[in-house]
Write a structure and sequence with these properties.
2 domains; DUF4817 domain-containing protein
Amino acid sequence: MSYLTEPLKNEILMMIGYGDRARTQCEVVRLFRETHPDLPPLNQGTISKIEAQYREMGHVRKVPSKRQAVVDDDTKLNLLLALEENQITPTRQLARDMRWIPLSTSFTMRGHKP
């Protein structure tokens, strides 16, 4: 849910509460609807994910997803030269030889195949 900003997630955590006065997920969903009628309603899964993230990481900030490795131009050029010299060698083998992630090799090679 992209509209859930960090302050809203913190508010949800406060609605959940801790100790003797911890609310159920159903109660939190109802309370959130009453507090923020202008926002789309939450479901129990969203509440569960926010609570799990807080318990695991200690915060509710957005965590960057793992993306492909950033490759500089020199490394790309080295791969292209190696491919030119060894046109028969598969790109996966070249990636292993150069200690590259094969998936990033295929993205790099897109548009550069002879």
